[in-house]
Amino acid sequence: MLSPEIEKSKTHILIEIIEYVPNSVVSKTIIRKTTGNISVVAIDTGETLAEKISPFDTFLQIIEGNAEILIDEKSNLLQTGQAIIIPAHTSNLIKANERFKMISTIIKSGYEGSIS
Q1: Mind listing the pLDDT tens digit for each residue in 82-98?
Q2: How many Å separate Cα 62 from the centre of its chain?
Q3: What angle do CA 109, 110, 113 make, to 5 degrees?
Q4: Every domain of the chain and the residues it spans
């Protein structure tokens, strides 16, 4: 089941709309459109998002804690307030050496002329 978007035309404190769950990854949709989506994600210590290759660019911003983002096996350590763009068609893995929260933005438009 798809989670509903958060309420529009209302102020939100993103680190407060999602809570950590022990031994889990929790995600809440902020906006979901055919051209992309934005989610806030809470990842507990020791959890990993499975390695994947996305056909789209993904923008990640850490809003609480610290994260390890591996892009093509190169480790990037991000702290609160830092962000990174995972390029389309590259392998990536997201690790929680300690728990953290992030905003994930996937842009699906602009690839119409590219070869997959």
Answers
A1: 999 999 999 999 999 99
A2: 9
A3: 125
A4: 15-107
pTM for the full model?
Answer: 0.87
The CA distance from 32 to 36, in Å, is 6
Q: Which fold has domain 15-107?
A: Jelly Rolls (2.60.120)
Would you say 77 and 93 are in contact if contact means Cβ atoms under 8 Å apart? no
Tell me, what DSSP letter sits at residue 13? -
Q: How far apart are CA 34 and CA 21, in angstroms?
A: 29
Tell me the pLDDT tens digit for each residue of 49-85.
989 999 999 999 999 999 999 999 999 999 999 999 9
How far is CA 100 from its chain centroid?
11
| pLDDT number for residue 110 | 74
CA gap 105, 116 in Å, rounded: 20
* Cα distance between residue 74 and residue 93, in whole Å: 10
